[in-house]
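Dear colleague,

As promised, here are the two records you asked about, laid out in our usual form so they can be pasted straight into your sheet.

NAME FIELD: protein one
SEQUENCE, THEN STRUCTURE:
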Amino acid sequence: MYNEYDNEKFFEEYGKMARSRGGLSAAGEWHLLKPLFPPLEGKTVLDLGCGYGWHCAYAVEQGAEKVLGLDLSRKMIEEAERRNPDDKIRYRVCGMEDYEYPESAWDCAVSNLALHYIENLDGVFKKVYKTLKPGGVFIFNIEHPVFTSGVGQDWAYDDDGRPKYWPVDDYFKPGERVTHFLGCEVIKQHHTLTQILMGLLNSGFELKAVREVEPPEEMMDIPGMRDELRRPMMLLVKAVKR
């Protein structure tokens, strides 16, 4: 799978983002994602697309005994090892489609802003279900279908450069979307809400929570951030292996 995160320019620009500099507290979804985590004391946690390892470190802070962070990007894994090292965390360069998913091995699986790069989402859901222990929890944050189906994934602007509305096209046509992000061409995969939720149910999961992200008001007050953050960007889901 193509991996723009090992592109030097892209990786440098990614490092300038608020979430890259400030960690979980600087991520607009964290106030909604954090409450979805189950108690992690003595548990094992798998992070699919771990990035800088923020969620791996959080799992250890909450008492997790073993954490594995996977990311396709070597640069991301190197940064995770530098920023969030811990004896209980192992980082590994590996795409989530390539991981072996041992049966009934993990108590919790988490994936933050990575699944929208995956074409065969159903296949990943089935593998995650297999690798979770009975009662295991799968929490993920994926780009919202209204966002991935957005025209250019950006606002339509008036003559003065102010956002007018969020245009959507080809919503019911899943598949590849090419957009520009952080000055680079980025390839994503669009999945409808039906595909995401029914994919989980058909894999055997029980849905426990579905949240559409609205950033906290204090983030809206940051100069220049209101138009950025009020986009329909993210969908949070918590599912349990029955």
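NAME FIELD: protein two
SEQUENCE, THEN STRUCTURE:
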Amino acid sequence: MKKYKSFLRIRFINGLQYRAAAYAGVATQFAWGFMELLMFRAFYKADPSAFPMEFSQLSSYIWLQQAFLALFMTWFFENDIFEAIARGNVAYELVRPMNLYNMWFVKNVASRLSRAALRCMPILLVAFHLPRPYNISLPDSPASFLAFLVSMALGTFVVVAFCMLVYITTFYTLSPLGVKIISISLVDFLSGSLIPLPFLPDGIRSVVELLPFASIQNVPLRIYSGNIAGYEAALSIVLQIFWLLFLIALGRLTLARALKKVVVQGG
């Protein structure tokens, strides 16, 4: 366990060096957040009762989404993992006294945490001081905030576990590009990244909320905003735990089978 903690610390510190990229990302996320809010505001003015979320809840959802984008973004991958598999450098990883799945998992978590640490505070500070209803509201209770923290951690682990499956497919393909494009397009929509899931038609939403993608950012952001609470929030967290365990088990099994057949050429 100590070696994984050390690896996590090293990757986290290394990620903190990219401050210029973080500041550029903050500016982009502010622009995107304001654009989304103004777009939804135009629709809400037409008929506020026609929407499944209060605008204040939607505002909190959007700003939290932007603040913690680095934790939940599905298009962020560690390119060195893809290169290690494609070029055969994974052989060096296999001789290390570390579990390959655990090492890659920790690497992904550390990279996301470092990026989120650099970006979240400026966005949250500004968003909390915006005029209502464009600001972030405080959660309904301390229990809701605690549930949000637990759910956010689970959502981060779920997206990393899903990304692990994308990495592993590179053992079976010549290029990860096709799998990356398909997975990013699919997960962005089904996770509530493009449109919050409550805005989907009821029939589609009831199915999508059961999929693992809804356990990424949909659950923690709706818990914080107060859109789901009580029994429904607890049930959503249990579903997050289920999908996390399922994806990790599937990833470990798939990686073990891939490593049995992997062939590394070269001198």
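A couple of things worth noting about protein two: The first helix runs from residue 2 to 15. The chain has a mean pLDDT of 86.

Best,
R.
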